């Protein structure tokens, strides 16, 4: 059974308590968004997620999208849900008020995204991709294009996509072949084929605005010759309403493992009219604005699925009776005890819980940095936020999706045989979660980005945005009477991270394959340390609240217990990651390709 109730109390904790001293300070531009106001917004978002989107999750998966005469139909109920979502202003939460947005903090927006992803991951892609597309248009398009497209995209009347992948090239975009031929009126005619285009065609909005990577006739080879173009499905008329079709057609929709209610399309562009976004041959710079926005959002997708999987597993573990507790009967009136009494079931549930709470804490920290980058008036704070975002974006994308996938599979395991059949609903979580580890750059690519670009950038400056607060926290709390052991565990893991950083830097200068071989383990290691830091902070805050006689004492006690579980059972992975990194590439690369 798919069960979901938005974790509003934990969301309020990470939003208002955990990161109060994150170094980004109070942002005057966001001062009107008080805890009472943001709490009310999140409560309304929870109602939308639980009452409107969750009931469509399994039915949407079973029905899927269909292609009829060149038009994609979304599953029953999706159009009505999207109209309600758009009319309620949920498409425009964090967008700039200049274009009709509400200007909410990104920290609130990301928590809202999590709820939508928990309730219905397929649905989340439609508004989510549009928000990403607006960031690229806002940052790089001409004023004329902004005026013509942003208001309708921000409102959700029109949607957006990103068109990168082609049949013969995925991550290696330097191989793309889509052509853009300049016209006398300043527009371009685009011709080519794109695949794996999420929300590439659907019946939810009046128009779809494609951001397409293509080459001009004089383009240099490789990624240095890629430009970005805005190509609408329908050309707007003078009054701004959709007009003539623009040569964008759907060849097919992909038959996928999961996300069946999200239309993933193969698109053909045939002399489609488009307009340049940004400078010629500099399309990757503009596209990366959208891609980085989407990478953080994809990380939130992993967290969202992980939370839904956890709650569904808890419901089942309390309901399913099987076997007797090893410490004595807990349900004497029944033939067996609920399976939540068994240690291995508890191991799985606590693992899911800890990963979800740890990911939510890191996500809120990164969202705070996004707000500081945009709204801080202090140049030093803004620069530190930019460094932190650059470092943590690949971590959020890869770590959260890895852990969300793990949580989904643990939920199936808790259900046992019932989890493996469709009627339970939890096998959908496992299928849906899998793609998040692949799209927006596979998790291996994220790890390479971390060690190849982010770690050495500016002589390690990005790392300092994370290392310095962790080091200061450890130094200030290592003698704590209650949590000294916890802080000691964090210090050891942080030490392993520092040693690993030095090892990769030293070996990588001589042999780039050494850094690449260590990349995935290094990303997991930095993620574990970040979780350890946020859990230790959370435990100290919870202790203080309990000492003050907090009314919701049960929440704070559970926070401390979850933190202890993380340090006892999950953070030891840091040692294994360090040993793997230290071992080098030798055994990984020794076999000749023909020997596989």
Sequence-ordered SSE layout with sheet pairings:
Blueprint: H1 8-18, H2 35-53, H3 57-63, E1 66-68, E2 71-73, H4 78-87, H5 106-119, H6 121-140, H7 143-155, E3 158-163, E4 179-182, E5 188-198, E6 207-214, E7 227-232, E8 234-236, E9 242-245, E10 248-253, E11 264-277, H8 283-319, H9 343-375, H10 379-415, H11 417-420, H12 426-434, H13 443-454, H14 461-477, H15 484-510, H16 512-547, H17 553-570, H18 573-583, H19 586-589
Parallel strand pairs: 3-6
Antiparallel strand pairs: 1-2, 4-5, 5-11, 6-7, 7-11, 8-9, 10-11
Provide an overview of this structure.
With 596 residues, the protein is α+β, with helices and mostly antiparallel strands. It is built from 19 helices and 11 strands. Strands 3, 4, 5, 6, 7, 10 and 11 form a 7-stranded mixed β-sheet that branches. The chain has a two-stranded antiparallel sheet with strand order 1-2. Helix 14 runs antiparallel to helix 15. The protein is globular, with a radius of gyration of 24 Å. The relative contact order is 0.10.
Which characteristics define this entry?
seven-stranded mixed β-sheet; two-stranded antiparallel sheet; alpha+beta; 596 residues; globular; 11 strands; 57% helix; 19 helices
Count of separate DSSP helical elements: 19
How many distinct beta strands?
11
* Helix percentage range: 55-70%
Over the alpha carbons, how many angstroms does the gyration radius reach?
Answer: 24 Å
Strand proportion, as a percent range, falls in 5-15%
Mean pLDDT: 96
Largest sheet, in brief, is: 7 strands, mixed
Gap between N and C termini: 42 Å
Shape: globular
* Class from helix and strand fractions: alpha+beta
Give the low-confidence spans. none
- H and E order: HHHEEHHHHEEEEEEEEEHHHHHHHHHHHH
